[in-house]
């Protein structure tokens, strides 16, 4: 590993400080307005939810309460959603949200009321349905009920099913499906235990031949050996086969392994091509910093011009009012609002200027460091050392290219 000199270390530390300063400038420009906007939106949603509740628009209340719960994680919103479903006579959905609320809320004035509603809904559902818990070994199996996929449901899973005949099926990749037929009658909660058996598939064989001896063979990114390679046993499916020779580019192709059959893949010796210069991570970072810096400077210029325009219009407006002796206190406040708006634009422009200048300067520093490192690599690349063995004598041969 090549050690960095003191100059290069100082340059990298300076570049890191400049990037940090640009991030701080962006935070100062936007951090405060974002907080106010988030708090205001939550309060507005809360007021809107109350208005819909007064008008008995329960579907709208459910949508707003779900959005608020994702932001605030307040368990009381789950009780509100359950109550809306309860009033809409959608018992299964109401019961699900009531039970979620009871799992999260340990104390509060609503607990007794919600427990009473849960008991009433369960009693009502028990007349035409029964609570069924489906378990499987192993867990995590997808579920089908009467030929329809239960969206997002995996074992263990609890649901309410209507009385009568039903077919339950559990599926898990690598296992044989377990399908059961059951008759549901009235009664206490029912548990159905399913057992999934491991699927034993007939494997296939892969034989890789290559004219390039000593090449590394990889299957789906995992090394399986060096050529020449004995046949490899694989599960039947499609694989990504990669050959990495000692010299030259890697070869990649897709192979299909069939059960009980041997797939033979022959890879020709790769053609060694001249090595092309690729963009280094440092040069890529320099270009990205330059592009972002230019974009931030352009944005700052736009905000600066917009603030200057607003300020100029406000000055012209107040001069016209002074000439006509119509400058009242209300119009003075309007002028102050315009002036504050232009000042906000200019303050944001300063933040963008600072961040953009820092990124542009960072890109310049990265370009300079990369050019110096590239020159050093090219100078080292002109000198070659190679060992030579002649009989019992070992020598070192050096070659300098000018």
Describe the structure.
Residues 29-39 and 378-386 have low confidence and may be disordered. Among the domains are: 127-200, Immunoglobulin-like, CATH 2.60.40.10; 204-267, Carboxypeptidase-like, regulatory domain (Immunoglobulin-like); 281-384. The protein is flat. Helix content is 50%, strand content 25%. It has helices at 6-54, 58-72, 76-87, 91-104, 111-125, 281-323, 329-381, and strands at 129-137, 142-145, 148-154, 157-162, 164-171, 178-184, 190-195, 204-210, 216-219, 222-226, 232-234, 238-244, 251-256, 262-267, 383-390, 393-400. Helix 2 packs antiparallel against helix 3. The strands form five sheets. Strands 3-2-5-6 form a four-stranded antiparallel beta sheet, with no helix packed on it. The protein has a four-stranded antiparallel beta sheet with strand order 10-9-12-13, with no helix packed on it. It has a three-stranded mixed beta sheet with strand order 4-1-7, with no helix packed on it.
* Strand/helix succession: HHHHHEEEEEEEEEEEEEEHHEE
Distance between the termini: 26 Å
Low-confidence stretches: 29-39, 378-386
Report the strand count. Answer: 16
Strand content: 25-35%
How would you sum up the major sheet? 4 strands, antiparallel
Going by helix content, strand content and strand pairing, the class is alpha+beta
Q: Please tell me what the overall shape is.
A: flat
> What is the rounded Rg?
36 Å
What is the average per-residue confidence, as pLDDT, rounded to a whole number? 79
Residues in helices, as a percent range: 40-55%
What's the quaternary structure here? Answer: single chain
Helix count equals 7
Strand order of the main beta sheet, please?
Answer: 3-2-5-6
């Amino acid at each position: 590993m090549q050690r960095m000199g003191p100059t290069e270390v100082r340059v990298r530390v300076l570049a890191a400080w400049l990037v940090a300063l640009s991030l701080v400038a962006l935070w100062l420009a936007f951090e405060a307005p974002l907080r106010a906007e988030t708090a205001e939106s939550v309060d507005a949603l809360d007021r809107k939810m109350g208005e819909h509740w007064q008008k008995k628009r329960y579907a709208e209340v459910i949508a707003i309460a779900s959005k608020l719960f994702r932001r605030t994680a307040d368990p009381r919103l789950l009780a509100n959603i359950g109550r809306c479903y309860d009033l809409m006579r959608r018992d299964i959905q109401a019961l699900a949200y009531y039970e979620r609320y009871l799992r999260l809320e340990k104390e509060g004035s609503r607990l007794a009321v919600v427990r009473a509603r849960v008991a009433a809904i369960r009693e009502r559902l028990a007349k035409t349905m029964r609570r069924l818990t489906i378990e499987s070994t192993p867990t995590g199996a997808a579920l089908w009920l009467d030929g329809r996929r239960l969206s997002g449901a995996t074992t263990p899973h609890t649901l309410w099913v209507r009385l009568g005949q039903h077919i339950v099926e559990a599926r898990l990749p690598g296992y044989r499906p377990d399908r059961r037929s059951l008759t549901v009658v009235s009664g206490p909660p029912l548990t159905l235990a399913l057992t999934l058996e491991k699927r034993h598939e007939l494997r296939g064989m892969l034989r890789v031949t290559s004219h390039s001896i000593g090449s590394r063979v990889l299957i789906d990114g995992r090394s399986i050996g060096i050529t020449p390679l004995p046949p490899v046993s694989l599960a039947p499916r499609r694989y990504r086969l990669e050959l990495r020779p000692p010299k030259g580019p890697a070869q990649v192709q897709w192979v299909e392994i069939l059960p009980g059959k041997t797939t033979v893949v022959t890879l020709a010796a790769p053609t060694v091509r001249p090595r092309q210069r690729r963009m280094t991570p440092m040069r890529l970072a320099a270009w990205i910093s330059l592009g972002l810096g230019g974009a931030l400077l352009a944005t700052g210029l736009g905000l600066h011009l917009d603030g200057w325009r607003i300020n100029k219009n406000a000055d012209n407006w107040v001069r016209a009012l002074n000439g006509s002796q119509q400058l009242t206190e209300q119009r003075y406040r309007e002028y102050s609002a315009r002036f504050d708006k232009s000042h906000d634009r200019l303050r944001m422009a300063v933040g963008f200027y600072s961040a953009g200048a820092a990124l542009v300067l960072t890109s310049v520093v990265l370009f300079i460091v990369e050019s110096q490192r590239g020159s050093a690599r090219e100078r080292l690349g002109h000198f070659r050392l190679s060992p030579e063995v002649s009989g019992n004598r070992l020598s070192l041969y050096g070659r300098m290219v000018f």
